[in-house]
Amino acid sequence: MYDQDFKRTGHHGRLRNACRTALASGIILFGSIGAAAQNYPNGLSEDSVDPHADSLFFSRVRARMEVIRNTEHRPTVALVLSGGGAKGAAQVGALKYLEEIGMPVDFVCGTSIGGMLGGMYAVGYDSGTLEELFRNQDWDVMLSDYVAPSYIPYSTKMYNSRYVVSIPFDTAREVLDSRLPEGPGYRRQTFLGSLPSGFAYGFNVNNLISSLTVGWQDSLSFARLPVPFVCVATDVVSGKAKNWSGGSLNEAMRSTMSIPGLFEPVRSKGMVLVDGGTRNNFPTDIARAAGADYIIGIDLSDSKPGYDEVNNIVDIVWQFIDMLGGDSFQKNIRLPDILIKPDIREYDMMSFSPEAVDTMLRRGYAAARSKSDALLELKEILGAERIPPDSRAVNIAETGVRIGSISFRGVSGKEAAIISKLLSFGEGEVVTKKEVDDVMSKFQATGAFASVTWSMLGQDEPYTLEFEFVKAPAHNIGLGVRIDTEEWASVLFNFGLNTNSMTGSKFNFTAKLGQNLKADLHYSLEFARFPAINVKASVSRYKGVLGTPGDALTYDASYWTHKEMVYITDVRWTRLNFEAGLKNQYIDLNDNTHLGSVIEGALSEKALKGDYIGAFATGRLYTFDDFYYPSKGTDLSFGANYDFLKAGDPSFDPVLALSAGFRTVIPTGNRFAVIPGMNLRTVISTGSTTDSEGHIYKDLSVLHTNFVGGSIPGRYTDSQIPFFGIDNVMMADEYLVTATMEFRYNPVRKLYVSALAGIVESNDGGASLIREFSPDIWAFGAEVAYDFVAGPVKLNLHWSNQRKWGIYASFGFDF
C-alpha cells in the first residue's frame, strides 16, 4: 500500500539519482542559490499580486492531491508548460507521447502559449484536439483583429483605402471627472491614454478561446476544473506576477499570452496584464507549491542568441521577455523531476507556418520519447493509468448549444437596442461557433467598440450568452501619404469628431496638401433605422497639365472650385452605397493659362466660370475583397448629375450628366486573374448647342466636360475617368466610353505583375458613337507592384497610339 507519509526525497532509483545529478549540476552552474532559496510568500520564485489568494488555492489543491494519495494510493504528478508562442506545438507533440504511455496528470500550469494549452488540457481536451487546433487555424487571422470584408461597412472600406495611419482618441476630460468606477465600459479619456496599446486586442483569439470552454466560463476556482490549473500573467502596474487560480478562465488564458506590442494588455480589477513570461515563464515553483510529488516540465526556451540571431522585432521582443523573466527561470529550471526540451532552435514564437508546426509537433514527440526511461520509471512508481476527465468543456464548433437568454454589458439601453438588431438568432435557439462568429464580426465591424467579447454562462444548457463591450475612443485622426510622378508628394489629413459612435452627430475635416490642394468639412447626423443626413462643403485648387482630343500636346491649366452639398446616405451597408441630394458648385478656370484660352475658344467665355445648382444621385455595388488587389468580387457604379440653374445666367438650359462603371475579377487559378473593366459617361444639354456668337455647347463648362486619363478617378475633375495609357488627363467629347483588360499574376504573396490593354472612344453624339465606333486611343501596358502595408508601390510602363510611350510610378494609397 502507498505510504501516506511519502516525501519527494523519499523515492530512490535511477529517476531520483538523475534528478540529484541534475540538481548538483545546476548548483555548480548557477551558483549557490539553492532550490529552497525562495524570497516570496508560498515559496514562489516571483512576488505575486495576491499571495493570500494563492495560499487559499494551494490549500485546496493540496487537499485534492491528498485525496488522490489516499484513494488511488500513488504519488501525484504536475505538468508544467513554458511560454514560447508558436513553439507550443512542440508541447502538444510531447503531450501526445505522455498520453500514449498513460501518464496521469493531476495538476497543470503554464505561461503564455503554455498557459493556453494548459487551460485547454485542464478542461478535458487531449493532445489530438490540441494538434488540430495548431494545424487548422489561420494564424495570421488568429493573431489579429481581422474581420472579413463582407462585414465591413462600405464607408469604412473607403476610409481604410486612403489612410495609412488611423489613430482613435478621446478628449482630455475624464469621464464624468473620473468619478465613474472602473468597469466593462471604462476607459481613461485622455488623448495619450486612448491610443492603442497593442497591434490587436485579441478579437479572434478571444472568440476561439470562448468557443472551446463552454461549460466552464463562470467565475470559479480553477481547483474545481477537471484538472486543477494555474496560468501566469504579469501586472505591469505592480510589476508582480498574477497567478490565475480562479475567476474567468477565458480572461486568464487570454492575459497569459498578451505578448507586449502584439496584443493589448488585459485590464482586470486594477491590473494591466501582459504575457506572464516577463515574470515567470516556466512556473514549476507553482507546481511545487501546489503539493505535486513529481513535476514534468516541457521547456521551449532558447539558448542565448548570438549577434547574428537577433535580427527582427520578434527576436527583440522575445529577448526582452527572456531578460525580464530570467531570474525566476534560472530558479525554476532546476525543479522538474523530468525535463523535456524539444530541439526547435531554428523556430521562434511566430513560426506558425504549416511546415513549421508539423516539424515542431514531431520534434516535441521525439523529445518526450527520448525521456522514455525516466517517464516509464515514473509510470511504474505511480502504478496507475491516465484516466480521461469525466467532463469536458463543450466545443461549440462541433456541438451546438441552446441559449436561454442574451444580455449586453458595457452599452446603454439605446445602444443595446441597435446592437440586438444585428443578431441572427434569438433566445431558445441552438447556436454554433459559426453563428456566434457571424454576430461578433458584425459587432466588431461597427467600429464603435475597442473590444467585444462573449461568454456562455452556466454549466449546462440552456446557457446565458453574455456580450461585453468596451467602447472605442469617439474621435479619430487619419493620415495618408502618396508619392507619384503626376503630383509628386501629397499628404492627406483627416480629423474626425464622434466618428466612431453608432449614432448621433459626426464631424469630419479633411485636407489634402501637395501640388493640388483640397479641403472639406462634413457633418452627418446618423440614425439607428434611417439614412444619415449629410451637409458637406469643400474647396479645391488644381494646377497642372491637361490635354485636348487628338492633340499629343498637353497644356498648363489652373482652376479652383468650391462645392456645397446636402444629401442622404446609408452608412451601415456593407456592399451597397448610395447618395442623393442637392448641390451648389462654383468653378473658376484661369483664362491666362493655355488650356483656359483653348476652352474659351472652343466652348465659350461662360465655360470658364460659373455657379451651378443641381441635384445628384450616385450608387455603387462593391463586393471586392481588397481595394487594391482583389481576388474576387465586382465593382458596379452609376451616377446622375442634373444642373438646373446657373447663378446670374437666366438663359442657362439644364445639363444632365450620366455615368456608369463596371469592373470585376475573374479568378483563373490560385495566382492568376482576368480583370475586365468599362466606364461610360455622357453629357446632355437640354437647350440649343450654340449661342448668338456661334460658340458651341454654350451651357457646358469644365464641370460638365468629360475628362479621361490618369490612375485615380475624380482626382483632377469630378468627371475624370481613369485610363492607364494616358498620363495626367485629357478632354473628351460628350459621349465617352473606355474599356480595359488586365491579366494579373501573383507570383509571391504581395507581388503583382500585370499586362494591360485598353481603348478610349468618344463622340459628340450617342448614335454616332455606336454607328461610327472606332477607338480614338488604344493602349498597352505592363505593371509591377508590391502591396506594402503603407500602400502599393507601382511601376507602370505603357504605350498609346496618341501619347506614345509613358511611365508612371507611385507609392502609397490612392487619394
UniProtKB/TrEMBL annotation:
Alphabetical keyword list: Hydrolase, Lipid degradation, Lipid metabolism
Residue ranges of domain PNPLA in the record: 79-288
Residue numbers covered by motif GXSXG: 110-114
UniProt keyword annotation of Lipid metabolism present: yes
SUPFAM superfamilies the UniProt entry points to: FabD/lysophospholipase-like
Motif residue range(s): GXGXXG: 83-88
Single biological process term from Gene Ontology: lipid catabolic process
Stated name of the protein: Patatin-like phospholipase family protein
